Structure formats: C-alpha cells, structure tokens
Amino acid sequence: MVGDEAVWGEELREFAIYCQDSLGCRKKIVCHMCVFDQHNYFGKLHAPSNMLVHCSSKHTIGYKCPKSGCMVRVATPRELPLHIHFYHELPTGWWEMTPYNEKMNVMKGD
After folding, report:
1. Domain count, the chain
2. Which residue from 19, 20, 76, 85 lies 20 to 30 Å from 94 (Cα-Cα)?
3. pLDDT value at 105 more than 80
4. Closest to 102 measured CA to CA, from 6, 2, 22, 13
5. What is the pTM of this model?
C-alpha cells in the first residue's frame, strides 16, 4: 500500500523496471511517462534540462516531482505519491525483497 493505494502485479513490475533502469542513469532521467503510459522501457533517457520540453512535446506536461533535485514528471496526480514512494523512499533493491517480489506475481483481485 502507498497511502490508500494498493499497487499490485503489472504496475508494481513497471515500478521495479523503472527503478532498475534509473539506477544506471545518474546524469540522465528515465522518462516516467514513456515507461508507464507508453510501456516503452528502453532508451528513454533525457538530460534533466530537457525533461519539460520532452514531456510537453511527447506527452502532457504532467506533474513535476516535488522532491528537491528531481526533474521527473508524471501524468496524473495519483502517480506522484507512487513515484515518491518507489523511487525516493524505498531502498535500492526493494524489488528483490519478499513482500514486493510476491506482490509482483499477484494480480489485483486474486
């Protein structure tokens, strides 16, 4: 649970992929909207200074992460606390921890 929001199966797997891909990109940003809205998991790296231009030309302008120094933009207000939780608050490697690993293999409602 993230706040009142349950995150299961495919969405949880997408956050795991997103966080893993972001690990090796310290000078560039993986576009959240490319991953979550277009399911494009590879090659969507952008310079932090280019994120606003990329998001406004390829997506909707979205909502900027409020965390200091983070230039990630998400498509909906619902995605902001999810991004903050999975990307900023959880430790690196959270996707390998049992509670998350088990939930990635369960579909919502099972």
Report:
1. 1
2. 76
3. no
4. 13
5. 0.85
